[in-house]
TrEMBL record:
This is L-fucose kinase. Belongs to the GHMP kinase family. It holds the Pfam family GHMP_kinases_N. Residues 966-1042 form the GHMP kinase C-terminal domain.
Length: 1163
């Protein structure tokens, strides 16, 4: 629980009247994990053995309970300190068991009182949390106390668990911390409340102008409180809260008090020495002795008892109170009536942590399961499981266990309380806390007597009245526990004669049973209740609700968040959600998006169970044990079997610890990705391949890059079809050039695939890179879906073009049928991780070139969808906007909707003047750091599958901003375009926190900037800068030199490519001329001869002309100077590299001669 705004307590001690209650609450806190406290203790009030604490026990009070707990904490902390300072043997020899009286210095200690005989059962109530979840008041209390304690020095907090915070402001924490920082200070929390609200109900502090407490008042009349109103506010007073802080010196004073012989009877120390329990009040005695206006004679009217001792021990301490800024954030939940009133004030969803079928929009339902129930307006149900019940207006049900057919009358409150002997009671009241009658009326109409309700020495009040029969079960319709429910109904009968008849029938039916049954009072229930069983029942209802709600959210409420349910299951140590997620994923009639989300939630559940000890969330997912199951997900007929196979492997791995859990999570993410691939494949119905006119030679495709202006992330599967996407982007040339392309040559006589990638970064001093991959069998293609495999992208392109299939006949046979092998080369002049859509654009270019080489053609829409299949095959999971941005020229907005996935692009016509103005104001800056798209993508998809509210809202905003951006482009509005671009970047930062490197932030502060965004997913790559004035390229280059962390950055001009991706045919002669020309330029202009060698190696066996023949011959004869260079090459003098190049040129010349068919080449 300890987070950035919290502290880890050195010790937390829970107190209760009954030993097993204290232990039950300790176990409940222990479930929050070790981050809560280094030491977690429980202690009950010391009582005489054999005494019924509900009737005869002498309470030690809240003050005595505080001393008792503080003594226990000091003993344990002293023992731990001694263990650290000495060996176990030394301790045994010395026998040192004393308490270190300075042990509380520099320690943060919390004493948590869970209440006396008038407490709620259990003391921890559930309130609405975020995203429809329920959260315990103890969790709220601990979280906000942690924030408060962080601003305070070490010391002791004494807190009532019946009070809590919805939140605490930074300003209040700061003011409280300042007041608490004084040495020896005691500081309390107070609320400014109207006098009428406090009078006769609560305690209050009379405050001085500096916050000093003048008096502690308890349940005073309105007139008395008016005299103690807040300075400057005559109609309000400082209501006392159950939070008090003792600075370490004041806490040490309390510890010394615990060892005073006069106070030993307040602790187990005195009881173990044979003393009778004695007690005092924390507020009315201890804190009252510290008030400035309290005098000895009024505080100690008699020179006996404990007050004179308290006066002398604590008078030097001074009490202050700090008022909360927002009193509504403080919670009092000391009774069910408080709970009902609190729910009425909270502006939140009516149902939280609950499953309702059918749903209800009127009732407040907390941590419950309700099936087929009729729920009237303003009814409240908590921690209950009901079936086919009727709950009338204003009724309250608490802790009802799997009851059927129950009718709860209007304004009646029912609470089922489990007892330690296995029986239960049904506490029945009207919601005003009574049975709606005087005691005389009740006794007269029921036939009960005072002697049956109270003992002789007891006050005639509700707390002590033995009204509620202890029964073994409430399920029987004739259970005496239901007698009071029927009694209320009888009392409401009209007319009078009907009411009398009903009451007469009630007496005949129930009087004897009530008389014979053991009946308990509220005071007895408080000590005899089985708190552990009550907390377990809360947990049981939560488990049932989570399972049912998870299924409901997956199948019916697809836009609702689910992560909080998973977190709750893991926190409670349960695994029941696996069954429902498996069932949903394996259902044959479930939609693909539902199945994929169910598998993704299994992955999330496993990762939460693994925790930080599991390692990194992302990683490989190709273990052979999972392979068959992952393959089986590709078919509806085998999906259920595949899910079962995965379940079997998971059941084995789940026993092997956190690392195995995280590995299993990765495989479930791969399973979800497999179903996303199937969903994306529905776009295949929009792919049409047509014959093209026969053409020989190299099929060359040149392509612009794209810059995204708005809407990115909404094109990403599954967002693009589950929500719908809209993206605006622009086809651009970088520094006037198309930086991406591919070419393909069909080789009729060579039945193999030669796949080659060529990269030459636009940046300075970046060496070129070339990789070739030869595939002669299908085994060479099996790693197509591994992005790091050689030429993986090109392999996927060839497969998606349908030239070959990995599950077909032998590769040479498939190529023979297709018309020959192929040589496919892609190139990029952009740095890796540019964010300009390189991989998808290269896929489009490669597919377009490959199809043309085999005399086939796709229109633009078909090619857009085909590339989407490539991205999914490659498991990079990218969206569709990259290929749209480059295949189609100029500006456009593209949209997608529900499955089947179809992307429709709308061109955005730009006027010539606006296009020129836009080009002059656009600057691209490579940040020097590649963007990490896949890492960011995986996190976004996880958040989307969990339906994190901030992600869902941002997706809606992204689509809206894209439409506004399209309008800005059509209107030629640069100001609005810049605003949309900057808003887009703000949205990206919400989608993928951490996508903005620190060194990039100064770019946003450049003068005259209208808009800014990192391209693509962010994290690095290129940035798009839109300026108010044109021709800013040189100014940006100058500014980059002064920006720390951007030493490797460089700026480029961006011009709009209005044509988009283009195909041309290159003859063998033209191809070789280009190669040799490039080689010549290289040898004349660069000192690095490696590029020249790479160019020569890339020469394919093609037909050539005399020009190329003579050029190659000159290279062989003379090297660089032989081509007529007037200046000595920078490479001159390095003879060995030149000899190597001449050798390569000679090899090229031999290939040329070998291919020559024209007499011109005859020697």
């Amino acid at each position: 629980m300890a987070g950035g705004d919290e502290v880890r307590w050195d010790a937390v001690c829970i107190t209760a009247r009954v030993p097993n209650h204290a232990e039950a609450y300790r176990k409940e806190l222990l479930r929050r994990g070790p981050a809560l406290a280094a030491l977690l203790l429980a202690v009950s009030d010391p009582e005489l053995s054999g005494v019924d604490v509900a009737n005869d026990g002498v309470s030690i009070g809240s003050g005595g309970a505080t001393l008792n707990a503080l003594l226990l904490v000091a003993e344990h902390l002293s023992a731990r300190q001694a263990m650290r300072e000495a060996s176990r043997l030394e301790q045994m020899i010395e026998g040192d068991n004393s308490v270190d009286m300075t042990i509380l210095q520099a320690k943060r200690v919390l004493i948590l009182h869970t209440g006396g005989t008038n407490q709620r059962i259990p003391a921890f109530s559930l309130l609405p949390g975020t995203h429809g979840a329920a959260q315990s008041t103890i969790d709220l209390l601990m979280a906000n106390l942690g924030r408060l304690a962080k601003r305070c020095p070490p010391g002791l907090f004494v807190v009532s668990s019946q009070d809590s915070f919805m939140g605490v402001s930074d300003a209040f924490c700061e003011r409280f911390g300042q007041a608490a920082g004084e040495k020896g200070s005691v500081t309390a929390v107070a609320l400014a409340r109207p006098l009428e609200e406090v009078a006769l109900k609560y305690g209050a502090y009379q405050l001085g102008p500096g916050g000093e407490v003048r008096q502690v008042l308890f349940k005073q009349s309105l007139a008395q409180l008016r005299a103690a109103s807040l300075p400057g506010s005559p109609e309000t007073t400082a209501m006392a809260c159950g939070v008090v802080f003792f600075e370490s010196q004041a806490a040490s004073s309390l510890l010394h008090l615990a060892f005073d012989p006069a106070f030993e009877a307040c602790s187990y120390l005195g009881i173990d020495n044979g003393a009778a329990p004695r007690g005092f009040s924390l507020f009315l005695d201890l804190l009252a002795s510290m008030c400035t206006d309290v005098e000895y004679n009024t505080f100690c009217p008699e020179e006996c008892g404990m007050r004179p001792l308290l006066w002398r021990a604590t008078r030097q301490l001074r009490l202050k109170a700090v008022l909360m800024d927002e009193p509504s954030q403080y919670l009092f939940v000391r009774s069910t009536r408080d709970f009902v009133q609190l729910l009425g004030t909270l502006e939140t969803a009516h149902s939280f942590g609950s499953y309702l079928d059918p749903p209800s929009e009127h009732a407040r339902v907390v941590n419950s399961v309700l099936r087929n129930c009729q729920i009237a307006k303003d009814a409240i149900i908590e921690n209950s499981s009901l079936d086919n019940c009727i709950l009338e207006p204003g009724s309250v049900c608490t802790g009802l266990r799997r009851l059927k057919g129950l009718r709860v009358p209007e304004d009646v409150q029912l609470q089922q309380v489990l007892l330690q002997d296995g029986r239960c009671c049904l506490v029945t009241f009207l919601t005003n806390g009574t049975l709606g009658q005087s005691w005389q009326q009740l006794l007269a109409q029921t036939g009960l007597t005072e002697e049956q309700l109270w003992r002789a020495n007891e006050e005639r009040e509700l707390q002590t009245a033995r009204l509620f029969p202890a029964v073994s079960s409430l399920e029987a319709s004739l259970s005496p526990a239901l007698a009071w429910v029927e009694y209320v109904q009888c009392c409401r009968e009209t007319p009078e004669n009907a009411r009398r008849a009903s009451l007469d029938l009630w007496r005949r039916s129930w009087s004897a049973a009530l008389t014979a049954a053991e009946r308990l009072s509220l005071q007895q229930l408080a000590t005899r209740a089985d708190v552990q069983a009550e907390l377990q029942w809360q947990d049981c209802v939560a488990a049932d609700s989570n399972v049912l709600r998870a299924r409901q959210l997956l199948l019916l409420q697809k836009d609702a968040p689910i992560h909080h349910i998973l977190e709750d299951e893991v926190r409670r140590g349960r695994t029941g959600l696996f069954d429902v997620l498996d069932a949903v994923a394996g259902a044959g009639d479930a939609d693909l998006d539902v199945c994929a989300r169910a598998l993704a939630q299994v992955a999330e559940l496993l990762a939460l169970m693994a925790g930080p000890e599991g390692g990194l969330r992302s990683g490989s997912a190709r273990n052979p044990q999972w392979r068959a199951a992952l393959q089986g997900l590709g078919c509806d007929r085998t999906r259920a079997q595949a899910v079962q196979q995965m379940r079997d492997v998971r059941s084995s791995w789940i026993q092997d610890g956190p690392v195995a859990l995280m590995r299993a999570a990765r495989h479930y993410e791969a399973a979800a990705q497999a179903l996303i691939l199937r969903a994306v494949a529905t776009c295949s119905q929009f792919i049409h391949v047509a014959p093209a006119a026969p053409s020989s030679g190299w099929q060359v495709v040149e392509s612009p890059a794209r810059i995204d202006l708005a809407g990115g992330w909404t094109d990403t599967p599954p967002i693009c079809y589950e929500h719908g996407g809209a993206v605006v982007n622009l086809a651009v040339r970088v520094d006037g050039k198309r930086p991406l392309g591919a070419r393909c040559l069909r080789m009729p006589n060579q039945l193999e695939l030669v796949l080659e990638t060529w990269n030459k970064d636009l940046g300075p001093d970046v060496p070129p890179d070339s990789r070739a991959c030869e595939c002669r069998s299908l085994a060479d293609l099996e790693d197509y879906n591994s992005p790091s495999a050689p030429a993986a992208l090109l392999k996927c392109c060839v497969l998606c073009c349908g030239i070959v299939a990995v599950d077909g006949p032998a590769l040479p046979e498939q190529l023979r049928r297709a018309g020959g092998g192929l040589r496919l080369c892609s190139w990029s002049a952009l740095p890796t991780g540019s964010g300009l859509g390189s991989s998808s654009i290269l896929a489009a270019a490669a597919m377009k070139a490959t199809l043309a080489a085999f005399d086939l053609h796709m229109d633009d829409e078909s090619l857009i969808h085909a590339v989407q299949n490539v991205e999914q095959m490659l498991t990079t999971g990218g969206g569709w906007q990259d290929q749209v941005g480059a295949i189609l020229g100029g500006a456009k907005i593209a949209r997608s909707g529900p499955l089947p996935l179809r992307v429709l692009a709308e061109p955005l016509p730009l006027s010539r003047d606006f296009a020129e103005a836009l080009e002059q104001r656009l600057v691209l800056v490579f940040t020097g750091r590649p963007r990490l798209a896949k890492h960011l993508l995986q996190n976004v998809i996880r958040q989307w599958f969990s339906r994190a509210p901030e992600i869902c809202q941002t997706v809606r905003s992204l689509v809206s901003n894209a439409e506004q951006c399209a309008d800005a482009l059509k209107a030629g509005d640069l100001q609005k375009l810049g605003a949309c671009l900057s808003e887009y970047w703000a949205q990206k930062r919400v989608m993928a926190p951490g996508c903005e490197p620190k060194m990039v932030r100064p770019l946003r502060d450049l003068p005259g900037l209208l808009g800014f965004s990192l391209c693509g997913a962010g994290g690095g790559g290129f940035a798009t800068l839109l300026f108010a004035e044109g021709n800013q390229l040189q100014a940006v280059r100058t500014a980059l030199k002064e920006m720390p962390g951007l030493e490797d950055a460089y700026a480029c001009a961006a011009s709009i490519d209005h044509q988009g991706m283009e195909l041309r045919v290159q003859t063998g002669a033209q191809a070789l001329a280009d190669v040799m020309g490039a080689l010549g330029r290289n040898l004349r202009t660069t000192s690095d001869t490696e590029e020249g060698g790479i160019i020569l190696n890339r020469m394919a066996p093609v037909s050539v002309d005399l020009c190329n023949f003579n050029l190659a011959r000159l290279f062989v004869a003379g090297g660089p100077r032989g081509v007529g260079s007037k200046h000595e090459s920078p490479a001159h003098g390095r003879d060995e590299p030149h000899r190597r190049l001449r050798g390569l040129a000679a090899s090229a010349l031999c290939r040329i001669l070998g291919q020559a068919a024209d007499p011109i080449f005859t020697p």
